[in-house]
Amino acid sequence: MIEDLHLRHHSADEAKRVLDQLVDLYLEVYPDDGEFHSEDRYRRQLDLHMQRAGWEMVTATINEALVGYIYGFPLPPQTRWWEGIHEPAPPGFTDENGTRTFALSELLVHPAWRRQGIAAALHDALVLSRPERRTTLLVRSDNDVAQRAYEAWGWSKVTKLQPHWEGAPIFDVLVRTSVDVD
Q: Which residue range or ranges hold the N-acetyltransferase domain (predicted)?
């Protein structure tokens, strides 16, 4: 692990103070990657996600420079998260009550700082601190690096999902169950 790495949990109000830095890093991670990864769409996504009850983010800084972050939120009972899910999905898989599932929305690390344990540190700082019974995320099936990392961190593929957003790709739906669940 990097000696000067500092991880910090943020509420939505705290994260709004560094919003431009979050967007700038996102654009460095996804340069020229089409409308789906545009600044305008990502700012709208962040704004909507930050309004979710229980939204939480962990940032990684080195010498006060933002090098990565992860964020997510609990899925409410009437969530739209599962819209576009492909079958088969296990019975009751998409049933939510507001405390069952934490949705991990973004995990990114600046390209210059990858393969140094930062993503794993961010992942563990957020995911392992959550009280929900399970965590879910969407990852592109062609993102081999992310797929291998999530598998190593205990995630399992359940099915596929294509969100109803303009230009959205088809994602693999991954789930990680909390180790404290009876």
A: 7-180
> What architecture (CATH level 2) is domain 5-177?
3-Layer(aba) Sandwich (3.40)
- Residue 98 backbone zone (phi > 0: left; psi -120 to 50: alpha; other: beta): left
Which amino acid type is present at position 143?
N
- List 109's β-bridge partners, or say none: 68
Q: What pTM value is reported for the model? A: 0.90
Q: What is the pLDDT of residues 45-75, one digit of tens each?
A: 899 999 999 999 999 999 999 999 999 999 9
